[in-house]
C-alpha cells in the first residue's frame, strides 16, 4: 500500500514537471522595503509585492517581446504624449520591473529616461530576472524619489510618479508640497503623470491635492483595473482638458507602437474628473493620513 | 493624590511613545518611511529611555534641594526641546536634508537634534516616580514594577491613540503643540506631587 502511494506521488511530481515549461520559477524575496515575488511562466515574468494578503502586480515583462506593455496601465502612461508630444527628458519615480521603459527607450532613442528607485533589490531583480539593462539614456538612481526631486536641479518634459510599496503609496509622495516640488522641475509645457488607484477614498484626496497644485488635470481610466492615470500641467492656456485640443494620434505614433500601443484606445480612456465628496481632504506634509484613506473603499472598486 | 500620580505616569507614557509616531510623520517628507528611518528613530528613542532612566535614577538619590533642581532642569529641558521641535522641526529637517547627503548621517543628526532631548527628559521622571512610591512605604521592587507597568500601559495608549485617532484627524504640527501643552501640565503636576510630604 505504501509502495502504491509512493508511486502515485512520484507520478504526480513527474506530471507537474512535465507541465511546467522549462525555466519557469517562482522566487520570493524579503527586501528592506518590500516582500516581493518574481514569477516566470513561459516568457512572462511578473514582479509582485505581497501586501494585505494579496499579491499586487507591480510589473510584468514579456521576455519574447520586451517592448510589449504587458500591464495595461503602463500603456495609459503614454497619455503624457497628448500634453507634451516630445518627451526628450523624462523622470520616472518608481522602477518596478521597467515594464514601461523598454518601448519608450526603443521608440525615443535620443530621449533621456531617468529613473529613481528606492529599493536596491528591485533594481537588482529588474536586471537579473526581468532582463532590463540600464544604459546612459536610461539611468537608474537608487534613492528616495522625493529626495531626488529636491536635490536634482534639472527640468523634465515628463515626470512620471509610479511608486508603490506593496500596493501602498508612501505618504510623502502624495502631498501638495511634493507635487509643488515636481511642478517646479517641469520644463516648458511639461506634464506630470501619476498612477492613481481609484478604489479607495484616497483617490478623491489625490484628485483634490493635484487640483490644488496644477491648474489643469486630465484623467485616463485603464479599463477594469482600478488604475487612473492623471496628467497634470502647470499652465492654464492653452486648455488641454478638451480632447479636441490634443494632437492627433497619427502625429504621435511611432513605428514600434504597432501591435503594442494603440493611442486611440488611450484617448478613449479619457474620463471626466468626478465630483469630489466633501470628505476629500487636501494631503499635505502636515496632514497625510494616506494609509487610512486607502483602507476606505469606494463604490467603483475594480481589481488592481 | 495617588490617582493623580498614576494619571501623570500614564500621561507621560502616552507622550513618550505617541511622540515616536509623530516623529516618524515629521521625518516622512524629508527621509520617507523606510526601515532605515525606523531603525534610527527607534534607536534614538531607546537611547533616550536608557540615558533618561539612568539620569532620573541619579537625580532621585540626591538630597532634597539638588533633587528639586534636577527635576526642574528635567522639566525645562523637556518643555524647551518639545517647543523647539514643534516650532522649528520642519525648518531644521529641511536644512539637515539639504546639508547632509548621507541619509543615515542626516537621520542621526535629525533624531538626536529633535527627539533625543525631550524623550530623555521625560524618561528621567520614571525612577523618580519609583522613588516617590518607595518613600511612601511601597517595597522598591513592587514600586518599580507598578511604575513601569503603568507607564508601559501609557506607552500602548500613546501608540494606539496617535496612530488611529490623532494622526488621521489632526495635523502633525497641531499635535506637536498639543504634546507640548500636555507635557507642561503633566510635568508641573508631577513636580507638585513629588514635592508632597512623604507621610502617606
Report on this structure.
The complex is a heterodimer of chains A (304) and B (200). Chain A has 304 residues and is an alpha/beta fold. Chain A has one domain (72-295): Vaccinia Virus protein VP39 (Rossmann fold). Helix content of chain A is 27%, strand content 25%. In chain A, a hairpin with a 4-residue loop joins strand 1 (25-30) and strand 2 (35-41). Chain A is globular. The termini of chain A are far apart. With 200 residues, chain B is mainly alpha-helical. Chain B has a single domain (2-195), classed as Growth Hormone, Chain: A, CATH 1.20.1250.
What does the radius of gyration of chain B come to?
17 Å
Helical amount of chain B: over 70%
Strand residue content of chain B: under 5%
Number of strands of chain A: 12
Outline of the structure:
Chain A is of the alpha/beta class.
How do the helices and strands line up, and which of them pair or pack?
The complex is a heterodimer of chains A (304) and B (200).
Chain A: H1 2-19, E1 25-30, E2 35-41, E3 44-51, E4 54-62, H2 72-76, E5 89-93, H3 101-107, E6 112-117, H4 120-128, E7 140-142, H5 145-151, E8 156-161, H6 176-184, E9 186-197, H7 202-213, E10 216-221, E11 227-233, H8 249-252, H9 263-268, E12 270-271, H10 290-295
Parallel strand pairs in A: 5-6, 5-8, 6-7, 8-9
Antiparallel strand pairs in A: 1-2, 2-3, 3-4, 9-11, 10-11, 10-12
Helix pairs in contact in A: 6-7
Chain B: H1 2-31, H2 35-60, H3 64-99, H4 103-123, H5 125-134, H6 140-169, H7 172-195
Amino acid at each position: 500500500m505504501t509502495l502504491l502511494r509512493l508511486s502515485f506521488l512520484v507520478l504526480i511530481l513527474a506530471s507537474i514537471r512535465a507541465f511546467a515549461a522549462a525555466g519557469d520559477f517562482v522566487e520570493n524575496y524579503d527586501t528592506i522595503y518590500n516582500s516581493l515575488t518574481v514569477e516566470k511562466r513561459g516568457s512572462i515574468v511578473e514582479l509582485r509585492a505581497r501586501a494585505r494578503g494579496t499579491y499586487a502586480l507591480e510589473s510584468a515583462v514579456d521576455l519574447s517581446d520586451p517592448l510589449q506593455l504587458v500591464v495595461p496601465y503602463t500603456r495609459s502612461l503614454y497619455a503624457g504624449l497628448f500634453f507634451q508630444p516630445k518627451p526628450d527628458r523624462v523622470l520616472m519615480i518608481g522602477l518596478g520591473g521597467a515594464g514601461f521603459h523598454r518601448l519608450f527607450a526603443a521608440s525615443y532613442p535620443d530621449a533621456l529616461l531617468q529613473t529613481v528607485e528606492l529599493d536596491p533589490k528591485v533594481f537588482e531583480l529588474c536586471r537579473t530576472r526581468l532582463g532590463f539593462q540600464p544604459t546612459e539614456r536610461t539611468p537608474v538612481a537608487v534613492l528616495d524619489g522625493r529626495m531626488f526631486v529636491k536635490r536634482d536641479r534639472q527640468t523634465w518634459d515628463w515626470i512620471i510618479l509610479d511608486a508603490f510599496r506593496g500596493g501602498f503609496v508612501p505618504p510623502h509622495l502624495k502631498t501638495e508640497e511634493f507635487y509643488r516640488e515636481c511642478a517646479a522641475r517641469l520644463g516648458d509645457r511639461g506634464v506630470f503623470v501619476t498612477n492613481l488607484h481609484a478604489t479607495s477614498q484616497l483617490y478623491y484626496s489625490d484628485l483634490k491635492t493635484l487640483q490644488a497644485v496644477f491648474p489643469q488635470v486630465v484623467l485616463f481610466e485603464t479599463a477594469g483595473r482600478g488604475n487612473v492615470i492623471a496628467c497634470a500641467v502647470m499652465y492654464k492656456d492653452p486648455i488641454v482638458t478638451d480632447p479636441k485640443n490634443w494632437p492627433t494620434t497619427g502625429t504621435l505614433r511611432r513605428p514600434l507602437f504597432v501591435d503594442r500601443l494603440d493611442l486611440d484606445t488611450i484617448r478613449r480612456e479619457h474620463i471626466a474628473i468626478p465630483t469630489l465628496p466633501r470628505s476629500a481632504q487636501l494631503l499635505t506634509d502636515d496632514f497625510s493620513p494616506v494609509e487610512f484613506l486607502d483602507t476606505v473603499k469606494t463604490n467603483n472598486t475594480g481589481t488592481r | 493624590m495617588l490617582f493623580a500620580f498614576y494619571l501623570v505616569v500614564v500621561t507621560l507614557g502616552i507622550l513618550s511613545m505617541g511622540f515616536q509616531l509623530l516623529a516618524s510623520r515629521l521625518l516622512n517628507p524629508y527621509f520617507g518611511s523606510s526601515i532605515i528611518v525606523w531603525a534610527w528613530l527607534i534607536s534614538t528613542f531607546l537611547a533616550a529611555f536608557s540615558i533618561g532612566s539612568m539620569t532620573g535614577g541619579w537625580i532621585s538619590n540626591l538630597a532634597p534641594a539638588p533633587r528639586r533642581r534636577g527635576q526642574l532642569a528635567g522639566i525645562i529641558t523637556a518643555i524647551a526641546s518639545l517647543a523647539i521641535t514643534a516650532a522649528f522641526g520642519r525648518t531644521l529637517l529641511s536644512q539637515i536634508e539639504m546639508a547632509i547627503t548621507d541619509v543615515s548621517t542626516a537621520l542621526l543628526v535629525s533624531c538626536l537634534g529633535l527627539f533625543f532631548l525631550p524623550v530623555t527628559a521625560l524618561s528621567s521622571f520614571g525612577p523618580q516616580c519609583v522613588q516617590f512610591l518607595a518613600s511612601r512605604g511601597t517595597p522598591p521592587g513592587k514600586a518599580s514594577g507598578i511604575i513601569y507597568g503603568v507607564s508601559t500601559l501609557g506607552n500602548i495608549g500613546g501608540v494606539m491613540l496617535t496612530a488611529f485617532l490623532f494622526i488621521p484627524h489632526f495635523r502633525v504640527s497641531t499635535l506637536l503643540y498639543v504634546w507640548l501643552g500636555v507635557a507642561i501640565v503633566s510635568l508641573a503636576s508631577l513636580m507638585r506631587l513629588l514635592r508632597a510630604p512623604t507621610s502617606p
